[in-house]
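Pasting as-is:
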Amino acid sequence: MPAVWSFMLAARARGLGTVWTTAQGPLERELAQVLGVPYDEVMLAAFIPLAFTIGTDFKPAPRVPREEVLHWDRW
């Protein structure tokens, strides 16, 4: 995972945007087959889309207050 983080930071330094995706989880076996990855030996941990951004004025995205999405000892 540190290598993925380093890749993402290096991309940002060059004006490229990335995002760490995990939505492929339910389809990991099918994706491994399409990509030719041996599913029983290798875990697909992250897919990182990479693209040029519009500008370089990066700032935090709007967030929902954590109290609305974080639950501790209750649901």
